[in-house]
């Protein structure tokens, strides 16, 4: 549509006053034809003249062509008007058709004048002029026809142009309408796709939330089962530990009882051996006394009972009678010497209440090196018992007694507050 507007805008302007000039030219030619027709006077001779001379007289009047009015000067074309792009150009004004020329008046027969004998004029020039006028009129008629044909073609072209513009406009409107429909459909599809996407996203979030809830529920159930299993396992371990502690306590009690029996048996055997040695010493003393005195003799003697005795023995005898006493073991201050060496190595436990006593049997080599330790009597606090045993093992050697020997075996008792 805009292309046609621009084409019309740049087209050459139509000559102004063309129709008016054509109308004036047609009118002038019509007047000329009427004057020529009216001025030609054909005379024929009467029957008498024809009989006399056999010749006819022809009269013609020649009229010069009327001066035609000059066409007005063509005015300069007006400046092109600015056509609004949204409004279609106004349809061109149909050219005003010139009115058809009036028919020539009928040629009335001229009354025959009185026959006058005249000389016969030469009509060749008149015929030539008439022929020329006919050709000119025919040429003008052809020119008019050609102009009318051009005008018809111009109108057809203008009509086709308008039709083309209309078709272009309709096509453009159709394209715009289709484009709008496509854009609308595209927008609707995009909106639908967006809504579908949001719906799927919402469903996905809900599904993930549900799966998360189910997973958390399963994890809670598994955690409960795990806690239950752990609790059962801990209870089982506690029972096993209690059973083990009970067995250990029974084993310790049995071992303590066994050790006590062994210690009692050892003490009995030691006492029995000491008694046997004492009796043997008494017998030797009695024998010596019997060999050196009579029945009335009396005497006193002082002698070491045995190498293992901690103190000497004394005896008196009169005749064959005698009385004696003896004791063996470490000296009175040996326990303090052992405690002074062992206690710096004791690591006191934190949770310790009361003043429990733990007794440990220590076996040593002749040089005092500790070769074995055994808990004889527990204090009731396992941490304190283990601390005492570790301290003895860390001490490694025991000090010698006043006689230069190390008692073996030796049972030592320890209290945390002694």
From TrEMBL:
The chain's coiled-coil residues are: none
| Membrane-crossing residue ranges in chain numbering | 21-40
The organism of origin for this protein: Simplicispira metamorpha
Single Gene Ontology BP annotation: rRNA processing
Provide ranges: composition bias, Gly residues: 310-336
Q: What is the lineage of its organism?
A: Bacteria, Pseudomonadati, Pseudomonadota, Betaproteobacteria, Burkholderiales
Gene Ontology annotations for the cellular component aspect, listed alphabetically? membrane
Name-wise, this protein is Cell division and transport-associated protein TolA
- A Pfam match: TonB_2
Q: Which GO terms describe its molecular function?
A: toxin transmembrane transporter activity
Q: Where in the cell is it found?
A: Membrane
UniProt keyword terms in alphabetical order: Cell cycle, Cell division, Membrane, Transmembrane, Transmembrane helix
Where do Pro residues bias regions lie?
74-114
Biased composition annotated in UniProt, kind: Basic and acidic residues: 122-283
Main location as per UniProt: membrane
Note down the stretches annotated as region Disordered.
45-337
Query: PANTHER family from the xrefs?
Result: PERIODIC TRYPTOPHAN PROTEIN 1 (PTHR14091), PERIODIC TRYPTOPHAN PROTEIN 1 HOMOLOG (PTHR14091:SF0)
Q: How does it sit in the membrane?
A: Single-pass membrane protein
